[in-house]
Specification:
Strand content: under 5%
Shape: extended
CATH class of one domain: Mainly Alpha
Number of strands: 0
Order of helices and strands: HHHHH
Distance between the termini: 55 Å
Length: 164
Amino acid sequence: MWRHACLLGAGLFLGAAGVTLAQPHDHMRHGSAPRAADAPATREFKAAHETMMRNMSLPYTGDPDVDFRVQMIPHHQGAIDMARVAMRQAKDPWTRQLAESIIVEQQREIAEMRAWLAQRGVAVPAGTDRPHVMGADSYRARNPEAGTRAEAAGQSWAPGSGIR
């Protein structure tokens, strides 16, 4: 029994050491590899994040119901802006689907928050939210089970793929 425990412990230790050794090291990078910070998508994500943080820098009223909505509107807009970057830059169809879902849902929530604030006479923060128009290839125009079935079958679903 003791021998089995020692062998198991040694195996776990060596396995963990192998995983550590397999990790990429910075010194292995070659000068030709682009830095992540220089990637166009990274620059767009950073710009969207900075705009969101700037737009969230609003004075608080002391009313948690109002303050929550006033802060969440630019926060949601930031999520929409980042999702738009993903829609343009992402290669994975599931990432693009998630991004579109975020755009649609966050726009709906922004409209609800703006309406709630307007009904109470609270000045609604200006926004840059543009409505997202879903076309025939939008994931929401498809059978909702299509993506799940395709993914379970190991297929990569994308708008226009014919998987329904």
